[in-house]
Amino acid sequence: MTAKQILIIDDEPDIRELLELTLGRMNLETRAAANLEEARNLLANYEFDLCLTDMRLPDGNGIDMVRHIQDIHPEMPVAVITAYGNMETAVTALKAGAFDFIAKPVDLDDLRNIVRAALRISPAESRNAGKGGPATDLASERMLGRSQAIQQVREMLAKLARGQAPVYISGDSGTGKELAARLIHDLGPRASHPFVPVNCGAIPEQLMESEFFGHKKGSFTGAVQDKAGLFQAADGGTLFLDEVGDLPIPMQVKLLRAIQEKSVRPVGTQSEIRVDVRILCATHKDLMSLVEEGKFRQDLYYRLNVIELKIPSLKQRAEDIPMLAEKLCSNLANNMGIDTPSISMDGIAALQNYDFPGNVRELENILERALTLCDGKEITASDLALTTTAQITHTQTREPVPTSEGESLDDYLQRIERTAIEEALSKTNQNKTAAAKLLGITFRALRYKLEKLGID
Predict the structure, then answer these.
(1) DSSP letter for each residue of 378-445
(2) What residues have CB less than 8 Å from 423, skipping those under 6 apart?
């Protein structure tokens, strides 16, 4: 088997020698350049599987080399070497297309891990990304649709899967943000390692540090045994932080440190544990607005948002609804053990005219209800029982029911509030996120009101 070829670019002879020795012990062949001009000459005459380049070079910088390689050899991963603590430069390199970065002074364990991760990427598979090869085939199979909007998302997924940069996945609730994260993982070099999703809003604040970083036995009441955290569970793979906007500020500080240092400290111990994870995150909230309001740390925002992937709403790709409805209907029918009914023309028209505040998740809920209620082998518009946003708005803004004799103002207002909430939940098939959006309040506010009014 031919040894992998590595291009090293650094103007310091000692660093070049260190990298050549370390990679040589990994049975890799290397060629070294002291500047960009020498590197371009080597690229013109030899084939390489990986490039390691310093950021500061006599005739330019590493970003220039990243972009040059992206233009002529987009399948080749590039890792940049940057001064310790210079995160802005590292983030710029990742946005330009770099695979990963190594901080100076070079930690040889980090170097070996990055090289191993980079060389797991098959150049043949990478060349197929975005060109109808295995990557886009898998994305097309899982993320259905023919619209231009969803095709662009699939092409972006194939590109993002090749790198190691953190990705911020934005989009409304129910659009498929976790599906996108899983595809980035499954299409990339970490596919054989764990994909660990975590809903940040579902973890009690007092348990967050233990859940993320683990704890030692006896470190707090109830810690009856050692426990590995989510970072350790995802070691070698991907950690997907869903609803990252719900993290409290103190946890944001600790998360930022873990990402930057690539290590965690379990609760109750002073020792650091090295972890190798790729961070993907998502939220339906506007993180930049939270930053401006002081509810989300700006440094963590820029560390997580190296590359943003926007998932379109179902309303923005209405032409995909027939295909999605057919596939979802088939899956649901198989799970129920029944024959798959067709969807009538008026049913398809009703779906395409509906706003879908809950997006694909709501479409699935609507079809599940219709499958249960429909008669025969066809789902009609009446089986779907859809209500337009205009009708919902009219229902919500109608004249309030007059107060009854002896009813206090507080009781009256609570009755009106209860009616509005119950109607919103009914119209959105009990989707609390979509109901909150219809009511013009936050999800947290709706949850509080549900508890206050005793609505199950």
Answers:
(1) EE-HHHHT---HHHHHHHHTSPPPPPPTT--HHHHHHHHHHHHHHHHHHHTTT-HHHHHHHHTS-HHH
(2) 392, 395, 396
pTM for the whole thing?
0.69
422 CB-side CA count, 13 A: 10
| Separation between Cα atoms, residue 317 and residue 321, nearest integer Å | 8
Distance CA 178, CA 148 (A): 21
CB atoms within 10 A of CB 203: 18
- Which region holds residue 286: left if phi is over 0, alpha if psi is between -120 and 50, else beta? beta
Q: Please list the residues that pair with 80 across neighbouring strands.
A: 53, 101
- For the chain of 456 residues, list the mean pLDDT of each consecutive stretch of 10: 87 92 92 94 93 92 90 88 72 81 83 82 43 60 89 88 87 92 90 93 90 88 85 95 94 93 90 92 90 93 90 92 92 87 90 90 90 82 70 43 57 77 82 78 78 80
